Amino acid sequence: MASLRLLDAIGNTPLVELRRIVPAGCARVIAKLESANPTGSMKDRMARALVERAAADGRLAPGGTVVEYTAGTTGISLALVCAALGYRSHFVFSDAFSEEKRCTMRAYGAEITDVASENKKITEQLVRRMIETAREISRRPGHWWCDQLNNRDGEAGYHPLGEELWRQSGQRVDAFVHSVSTAHSIHGTAHALRSHNPRLRVIAVEPAESAVLSGGPSGSHQIEGIGNGFIPPLWKPNEVNEILTVTTEDAKAMARRLAREEAIFAGISTGANIVAALRVAERLGAGATVATIIVDSGLRYLSTDVFQS
After folding, report:
1. CATH hierarchy code of domain 6-36+158-308
2. pTM beyond 0.85, yes or no
3. Could you confirm whether domain 43-145 is CATH 3.40.50.1100?
4. pLDDT tens-digit profile of 227-272?
5. What kind and span of H or E run contains 144?
6. Of 153, 120, 148, whose CA–CA distance to 135 is shortest?
């Protein structure tokens, strides 16, 4: 009999083609519907890889506590995995991120420590304070810090996503467009796609207000889940062909358009992905295929101005 474990429901998400928002003459734009994962996010893939690998090699003891700083999406996914496998969880969070994320982490049994933001802006200073708070908590007995920024296990969690994308696309992906936080998802997905198409173009996306990957200054923005304000330690610039920037307002506007015109209810980083993917699709033209990711569900952003305006 096939496995019926909850964690085996992670992955194998649907692939959808965008039709109404893609102008005539552009490349085909396809997107993995990662909101179909158990928590409604692609981060379920990374969370499972991080926890299972740490448990397997003894870094995470039975009954231990998983610690991480999070904008909420990774925390929710880790909380799910911990609840499923019998671990406790303790996350460092902030009022810069949506209240839905806080409530969901708590629903899975997570303990939360807050770090206050300045006017709910996401900045390098905020993220670094969150990281240091997670580091301090992880020093307690029986606690294990995921340290997602420096944990190479995260990238492997996204290899299956790339394999699924290639298979479901009909084995045709010319460009892959995706936003950057830890860089695990863009590198892991691209790694699998490039094994099938060595000529794949990989395009990274970051907030225009904090375009550090592009060589700009660190700034504040409101695209939750990406743009930490500093270059991620595991960022591999030689594996990316291009970096595009998207403003917070454009990302929010696209999230609203996706719901109205494509019936895809998604968050702000997804909006940024689509804005950039459409630029690439226009450039490549008809006959090409541009792939991107629907990162998570819009249900996590109902309390924000994305869907309340």
Report:
1. 3.40.50.1100
2. yes
3. yes
4. 999 999 999 999 999 999 999 999 999 999 999 999 999 999 999 9
5. strand 143-145
6. 148
